[in-house]
Structure formats: structure tokens, C-alpha cells
Predict the 3D structure of the following.
Amino acid sequence: MELFTNQVLAGIATGAIYACMALAVVMIYQAIDHLNFAQGEMAMFSTFISWQLMQWGLPYWVAFVVTLAFSFAGGIAIERVLFKPLTKAPILTQVAGFIALYSIINSFAGLTWDFTIKQYPTPFGSSPFLGSQLISTHQAGMIGITLLLLTGLYFFFQYTRVGLAMRAAAAVPESARLVGINTSWMIALGWGMAAAIGSIAGMLIAPVVFLEPNMMGGVLIYGFAAAVLGGLTSPFGAVLGGFLVGIFENLAGTYIPHVGNEMKLPIALALIISVLVIKPAGLFGRNIVKRV
Amino acid sequence: MTALLNVKDLRAYYGQVQALHGLSFSLNEGSLTTLLGANGAGKTTTLRAICNMVRSTGAIEFEGKPLNNKSTESIVRFGIAHVPQGRGTFTNMTVEENLQLGAITRGDKAAIVADIERMYSYFPKLKERHTQQAGTLSGGEQQMLAVARALMLRPRLMLLDEPSFGLAPLVVRDLFGILGRINRDEKVSILVVEQNAQLALELADQAYVIETGRIVMSGAAADIANDENVRKSYLGY
């Protein structure tokens, strides 16, 4: 029983990271109807920035906040420079754009900081949380920061004018323009926020997976799985999907024989395919009906 | 009377297809003008061209200022509220959020709250349902919501695209009565596009008749309603 509880709690902790990645993916999907394949690399790059800042002597939380701001601005810049000109391009062109972005960021990070893995600090320490052996302080910190982030986002979208405008622009762009919302900038803002959310995921998971240019590959696949499971049109579903996938991953690794670390990724992919076959809109997503 | 909206030689295109062929008309401050015509005559395109939602050439002036080449969202800030065909409701948001979105370009918080209450007094049904998702409203209620959302801008000019479409006759009467009141009491000029010519002519003071992208008739609404030839050849009643 203790093993079970332990695995569930650990699953919730990594699930928090998947939830963040899924949320970042969903935010961009809502705005432009495409998956951002480079979301993980953007998060990895942000994490390197924070590491570099700490190498230069900044305290953790200062580096954390500066990295958030950098990622937000970077996300907006990527949208303005790369994807705004592609708005009306065919879908394959856009996908090519995402893949280009993926390799550019990955190679650039490798060139700058090389591919050897690096230790990444945690501000929470890794002692037992509240004296319990079930969960470490860093895992508790991951969950805590994620919950804080989710609450903040909820209030932003529900109770602020900009949040309302962003939701309107994503839901019915033409009507949004007719009430005076600059939908193009709302998309850019969505990119900025997605990049910032991704950077939080990167900085929180880096102490666990270690810092290197390919650190987010697996995490992003799990983020995709979470988003698909919860429904690509539902931010709430994506978050719940993140936690479910995290728990599922850990329990499968513990209780199904032969499922070790090597089999974890195929499990995520199998999950994506099963959801797409059984319930394509995900648990909480809306079925999209397109007029042709 | 001065012209609030002046349209000269308007030509609009969908891809290679030309939909408007040099259309000119004007709308006086405080007037309730209707644009009539059959299906495909170019009524909707005219409204869309005013808000720069379709490629067009020609001059469009609002209070003497040119609107050409302004983006749709910046044209709204001139005080032009467009209720599009199909009403443009944000269906998965609440009634109240829809109203707030109508005022999203305004900064005066207290006045916005007061305006929402004012809309509820115009449309009591909306107050009853203010926490409901807008998509769950009936067609008539959604049209009321669309008009209320447009008024939340405190517009100088309201563009309405077939507000009667798909509504029961009684609901249409109700709605047109409210439009008349808004025009009189709130001093909002209105340009309404309609297929229901009879009703629109009762409501409006000025009327234009469009056929295949050109104005073929214009004048006081009462005169056009009384002209049997016009009625028979263009309006079909």
C-alpha cells in the first residue's frame, strides 16, 4: 500500500509538469489550431537561460523570474517573426515552421552549452516532505508551484478584461474583431504565456531529468498525451490529463512487468493512439464540426 | 442634416469575383436607414466592406474621416458596431460576458456596469439568463443579445445584418420595436440590411434598394413602400 501511495504521489508530481506542458500546448492550439512541436525545446532553452543566470551568480528565484519574463518576450517574438507571416500558409508549411524552430533551438542550445548533462538546483531541497517518506520536498514544490500557476491562470482568464478578450479571440475570431479586439496580438500574447508556462515546467523538471538539450523530448510527448487525453480544446481537461498521465506512467512502471524506463515512452504513444481511436475529442473536449 | 456615413463608388471582391459594382449611398446622423434587395444582391457585402472584412475599393467616410485600409478592430473604435449575419454570439460564454465583450474597447468601468443594467432593462430576458451560456438562448434571445452587445460599445452607428432572419414574426415585431426605440432614445444611427422589406420599410426613414451590386432606387422609406412598381419589381410583395 505504501508503494502504491508513493507511486501515486510521485505520479502527481511529474504529472504537474505534464499538466504545464499540456496547458502550454493547448493555449497555442486554441489560438492557431496547430500543435507546437517546438514547445518542449522552447522550455528547454528557457531552462538553460535560468541555469546560465545562476552560473553568473544570480539567486534561484531572481533567475526564475527573469527567465519567466525572457520566455514571455521570446514567445511573443517567435510568433511575430515566424508564425504571423505564416498565418495563411498551408498546414504543411506551418508544420515545417514548427520543426525548423525545434531543430534551430535544439542545435543552438547544444552549440552554446554543449550536450553533456548538467546538474540543476532545486530551491526546495530533496529531503522528505514534512517528515514523510512518501514524497520529497522538491516533488511537493513542483505540485505547489503548478497549483499556484493554475489558480493564477484561472483568475486571469475568468476575471480580467485581457483574459476575456483572449478567450473571445480564440473562440470566435471574427466576432472578436467586430467588438474591437486585436486578435493578432491576442495570439502573440498566447504564445508568450505558453512559453512562460513551459519555462516553469522546464525549470521544475530539470532537477529530476538533468539539464541537457534533449531533456524535454519525453516530457513533451507526455504533455501531448495529456492534452489529447483531456481534450485539445479544454485547458481544464489538459491539466487533468497531465495529472492522470503522470499517475498512469508511474503505476504502469511499477506494476506491469517489463515496463521499465525504456517502455514508458511507447506507453504514452499508445495512450495517444487509444484516445484518438476511442474518443477523439478527449475527455473534456468539444467535437469540432467544420463547415466545408 | 449632415451625412454620418458616406460611401462612394464602392466595389468589393471575393477573390476574382466582383460583388459590388460602384455603389454609392449616404446615411444621415440620427437616421434609421435600410438597405433592401434580394438574395445575393450585395447587402451583406456592403456591410462587410464598411468594416473592412472584404477587399474593396472606393471611398468610405465616417464623420468625414476615411475608413479605407483601417483594420476591422480599429474601425470599431470609431463607434461603429456591426451585428453580423448569424449574430456572432460567443456561444460558450455567458450572457454577461458577451455584454462585457461589447464594451471591451471602453475603459470606464463604472459606466460599463451601469450600461449592462440598462441593457437588462431593455431586454429583461437577458437579465434572467445572465449567467447562462449564450449558446443555450433561443434564436430571438440571441438576436437581442447581439443588439445589446453592439449597444455596449455606445456606438454612433449600428450596422445590422438581417436581424429578422430565422425569427418568429412576433419576435421580429418586438425586436424592430426596440430598434426604433434605440434609434430615438439613444440617438444611435442605424443601417439595417433586410430581406423582409415590408417590415424594414415600416421601421426605417430612408431606404436604398440594391440589385446585383448597384443601388437601383433610393428615397424616403414611406415613398418606396407606396410605390407599387418598386415593390413589385424589386421587393416582391
Observations:
- The domain at 3-235 of chain B is CATH 3.40.50.300 (Rossmann fold).
- The first strand of chain B starts at residue 3 and ends at 14.
- DSSP finds ten helices and ten strands in chain B.
